[in-house]
Write a structure and sequence with these properties.
The complex is a heterodimer. By secondary structure, chain A is an all-alpha fold. In chain A, 79% of the residues lie in helices and 1% in strands. Chain A has a two-stranded antiparallel sheet with strand order 1-2. Chain B is mainly alpha-helical. Chain B has a single domain, classed as ABC transporter involved in vitamin B12 uptake, BtuC, CATH 1.10.3470. Chain B has eleven helices and two strands, in the order H-H-H-H-E-E-H-H-H-H-H-H-H. Chain B has a two-stranded antiparallel ribbon with strand order 1-2. In chain B, a hairpin with a 2-residue loop joins strand 1 and strand 2. Classes of the chains: A mainly alpha, B mainly alpha. At the A-B interface, helix 4, helix 5, helix 12 and helix 14 of A face helix 3, helix 4, helix 9 and helix 11 of B.
């Protein structure tokens, strides 16, 4: 574990230095998106890998964060930091409101609710198109920063902090109980743990970082839109990143996000089929190496 | 007049919803699989029916037959390529299998969605109607196709009921949903039962897809919402309960029709989704579910 953390830290330092060299803004931009997707995927992994709940609506949390922050900026003209705080808070509250009843139940209910939540949010954005910009999207007057490098460091900082906190949570006693709740709920309850409470807290943490990253993404892209933040396809990208990288590792989803965003750029010439290739790869990973890239690497190191 | 119109339209769409969600319930009941590629299978059938029947000029009936065949093939591929390997995988711990089936079928659905958009078209299409003309019902001019859809949907529901309750193969399906281990103990090969279930599922989904395509039109972009609707109806009715699914389909169908007529078509899906949330709060086992 220690060895892996050192490797991870070294990789982070190297990646963190990239924008200081004379790479193009394009590369910096791609790395920025990797950071955002890494936060989405890590947050998702806390629920899937540890709590054993599959959230089909990461884009609900991202979208509420994004539109919450975007509306606060476009309609109320609040400072960017306040807007981001509002978006994050909205994501946590909306997420909890929807998820608490489903987290009380065993079975596929949580998955269904999160899927329905995305569809509902998408409907709402289109119904209230006058306020939300509908299909065109909502442009915001403010940006995180003008320079590509500074934007990168915002996203990079977010990824490092979120990663550190999520890793700490996952490896704490709390994380262990969460794993127990996911893998053997009956025994975990028999040991006296209120597993629903643990899952709700895990979901809140996940919602916090998803919403925060979604809110910041608005001020990086300059617009909140269904296609970039809310669509079921966005959520599926997050799921693919986490599954490819390796569930129950937190670090794995970062690798997965880097792979996903990188593949998306490299496969641009094949058009929409790039999504097919990436989804097929993720399905292959699920079938053949369910522990993902990092899980497979770890297995090899041990053997 | 509007009331009769809502009654008729709601009845047809609800019957179609019942048929659309039926396969989803069947597979869950028999093998515990929630197939999130369900919407993709429906739309595949509709797309193939449109391609063969309309785009290549094969005629409505040839198209419909091709569509149903496509549904069966896609169902078997889903089972053989995605569901069965996950269920058999030694690398996936038993408790996580359900999560992996959900995630795997979701990804598979995405792959189908992209493939359909690439091979056929991204613009919404309408499958040619098997019957044309209009019928006068209590003074409301109704498309004959709407009546046809309601009749076919109920006929398939009835046939499935007969199959499950009156034939040996159907009884095995029922037994597999109640106690699969005991079924293997009396010497029935569970694999055969599952293959049968996926075959029936493919036929039902194929018919539902073709009818859906001829009634509301379809597009690969509708796939997530279709899967969501089927999933919602099935949970609303109570997971694994066929009669619950039918009742829930009527609740959702009429809610949507009422909203579309009385409020606005863009609000159509909202009340049903909110009802679903309320049900999860107060009666998570659904209308007729077993706990």
């Amino acid at each position: 574990m220690k060895k892996q953390l050192i490797i991870a830290a070294l990789v982070l330092v190297v990646v963190g230095l990239v924008p200081l060299t004379s790479v193009s803004d394009y590369i910096t931009g791609v790395l920025t998106m990797v950071c955002f997707y890494a936060v989405f995927a890590m947050s998702w992994d806390l629920l899937f890998g540890y709590a054993g709940e599959v959230n089909f609506g990461p884009s609900f949390l991202i979208g509420v964060g994004a539109y919450g922050a975007g509306l606060a900026d476009a309609d109320l003209g609040l400072p960017v930091a306040v807007c981001i705080a509002i978006g994050t808070l909205a994501a946590v509250l909306a997420g909890l409101l929807l998820a608490i009843p489903a987290l009380r139940l065993r079975g596929p209910y949580f998955g269904l609710i999160t899927l329905v939540a995305v569809l509902l949010l998408q409907d709402m954005i289109e119904i209230f198109a006058d306020t939300t910009g509908g299909e065109i999207g909502l442009s915001v007057p403010d940006v995180l920063a003008v320079s590509a490098a500074v934007n990168f460091y915002y996203a990079f900082g977010l990824m490092v902090i979120a990663g550190a906190i999520l890793l700490a949570v996952a490896n704490s006693p709390f994380g262990l109980i969460l794993q127990a709740a996911g893998q053997d709920p009956v025994e975990a309850q028999a040991l006296g743990f209120n597993i629903v409470k643990f899952k709700v807290v895990a979901f809140a943490i996940s919602a916090f970082f998803s919403g925060l990253a979604g809110a910041m993404l608005v001020f990086y892209l300059g617009t909140a839109s269904v296609s970039a933040m809310v669509d079921v396809a966005v959520g599926i990208q997050v799921i693919i990143a986490a599954v490819l990288g390796g569930r129950r590792t937190i670090i794995g989803p970062v690798l997965g996000a880097a792979f996903l965003v990188g593949a998306g750029e490299l496969l641009r010439p094949v058009g929409q089929m790039s999504g097919f290739i990436v989804a097929a790869l993720a399905l292959g990973v699920i079938l053949l190496v369910p522990d993902g890239l990092l899980g497979a690497l770890r297995g090899r190191l041990r053997a | 007049m509007l009331a009769v119109q809502i009654l008729i339209d709601g009845f047809a769409i609800s019957a179609l919803y019942a048929l659309g969600a039926l396969g989803f319930t069947l597979i869950f009941g028999v093998s515990g699989v929630l197939n999130l590629a369900h919407g993709a299978i429906l739309v595949t059938s509709a797309m193939v029916a449109w391609y063969v029947g309309t785009d290549s000029g094969g005629g409505a009936f040839t198209g419909a037959a091709a569509g149903v065949a496509a549904g069966v093939v896609t169902a078997f591929v889903t089972y053989g390529l995605v569901v069965r390997p996950i269920q058999r995988s030694k690398a996936i711990p038993g408790v996580e299998r359900e999560l992996f089936v959900l995630t795997g079928t979701l990804l598979w659905g995405v792959m189908i969605q992209i493939l359909l958009a690439d091979v056929f078209t991204t613009t919404p299409i309408t499958v040619e109607q098997l019957v044309s003309g209009t019928i006068d019902i209590f003074g409301v001019r109704t498309a004959a196709n709407e009546v046809f859809i309601a009749v076919v949907s109920w006929a398939v529901l009835g046939l499935l009921w007969l199959l499950v309750n009156r034939t040996p193969a159907g009884r095995r399906l029922l037994a597999a949903s109640i106690n699969p281990r005991a079924l293997t103990l009396v010497g029935v090969e569970l694999d055969h039962v599952h293959l049968l279930a996926w075959g029936i599922y493919g036929v039902i989904a194929g018919i539902a897809g073709v009818l859906l395509g001829s009634f509301l039109g379809t597009s690969s972009a509708y796939i997530p919402a279709l899967t969501g609707t089927a999933f919602a109806i099935v949970v609303l009715g109570g997971l694994g309960s066929v009669s619950g699914t039918v009742i829930a389909a009527y609740v959702v169908g009429y809610l949507e029709t009422l909203t579309a007529y009385l409020v606005s078509p863009s609000w159509r899906a909202v009340p049903a989704l909110i009802l679903l949330l309320a049900v999860l709060y107060f009666r998570p086992q659904g209308i007729l579910g077993r706990r």
